[in-house]
Amino acid sequence: MSSPCVSHHQQVRLRAASRLPAPDTASFAPPALRRLRVAHAAMSAKAPLGVAPAEEGPGTPGQQTVLGQMVEDAAVWCAVHGLVVTNQRSGTVPGVGLVHAPFSLLPARFPASFFNQACELAPIFNELVDRVSLDGEFLQAALSRQVLNSIHWILLVPITKQVDEFTLRLLEIHDKMMSINKKEDIHLGLHRSDYMLDSETNSLLQIELNTIPSSFPGLGSLVSELQRSIYYPFYGRIFMFSFKLSLIFSIVV
Questions:
Q1: Strand, coil or helix: what is 241?
Q2: Residue 6, φ and ψ in degrees, nearest 5
Q3: 3-state SS of the chain: helix, strand, coil percent to 5?
Q4: pLDDT in tens for each of the 253 residues of the chain?
Q5: Are 231 and 238 in contact (CB under 8 A)?
Q6: SS3 state at 205
Q7: Contact 89, 240 (CB under 8 A)
Q8: 130: part of which helix (H) or strand (E)?
Q9: What GO MF annotations does this protein's record show (predicted)?
Q10: Which of 34, 99, 104, 112 is 20 to 30 A from 70 via CA?
């Protein structure tokens, strides 16, 4: 799920008028006080009951036939409309092997309360990441730390920059910029916060906050177009077989 880009000076919040309510009086509170209120409200948001795990089953032969046709049509649609990624198994020649990007064949229900909760939390996480990114000494120290001490135990962990080559290169570039006191007045953060619904606790759980989500946003809008294009031609047969839109059929290659 994409989240708006927010600096510690300004919060840019994208809201759809048809989905999100108008701000209440708490929205005009001082920034620090409002952050506390928003965080408390978001973390204590109550979601409607009934979030259940997706049902699974082999289905009847007729259902499997329809599903197979939908999968085949979806794969062709992806190739025609550019919903593809490089196939790493196709060899070393760039651009030769392509395969459809991972997608869900049918849309899944997502409760509005959880969507609103994620929107409320996004600016808070964005500001946290922004402030951490501006503390160069903390970043260098945190990603180079090897020993974690506690009163009752000592845990040895590998140094991040030694086990992650990508992070190592970023830290080297960052260290060079710090040594020459190179700073920029303009900061842009592209953050993607990933969530999943937990059926046991009926809550929204954050999986990760990604600060380099630049690969798939352009493909995201194509997925909804794919689902509309695939769903309507098969609507009659889907309805007849009592398919549920809450089921997610993942394409696995």
A1: coil
A2: -135, 130
A3: 45, 15, 45
A4: 444 433 333 333 333 333 334 444 444 444 455 555 544 554 454 444 434 444 444 556 777 888 888 889 999 999 999 898 887 776 666 656 788 888 888 888 889 999 999 999 999 999 999 999 889 888 888 887 655 555 555 554 557 767 778 888 888 898 899 899 888 888 888 888 889 999 888 899 999 998 876 677 778 889 989 988 887 777 666 554 444 443 444 333 3
A5: yes
A6: strand
A7: no
A8: helix 112-133
A9: ATP binding; glutathione synthase activity
A10: 112
For residue 135, what is the DSSP state?
-
Residue 123 and residue 13 in contact, taking contact as beta carbons nearer than 8 Å:
yes
The rounded distance, in Å, linking the Cα atoms of 130 and 74 is 39
Is the CA virtual torsion 154, 139, 10, 195 positive or negative?
negative
CB atoms within 10 A of CB 248: 12
Measure the CA–CA gap between 107 and 248, rounded to whole angstroms: 7
Q: Is 68 exposed, middle or buried (0-12, 13-18, 19+ CB in 10 A)?
A: exposed
CB contact set of 107 (below 8 Å; sequence gap of 6+): 224, 227, 231, 245
Structure tokens at 7: 């600096």
Residue with tokens 């969530």: 195
C-alpha 20/C-alpha 113 separation (Å) is 10
Length of the chain: 253
Domain ranges of the chain: 135-186
Tokens of 194: 């990933």
Token couple for 55:
């049902």
CA 36 centroid distance within chain? 24
Q: Which residues contact 220 (CB under 8 A, 6 or more apart)?
A: 2
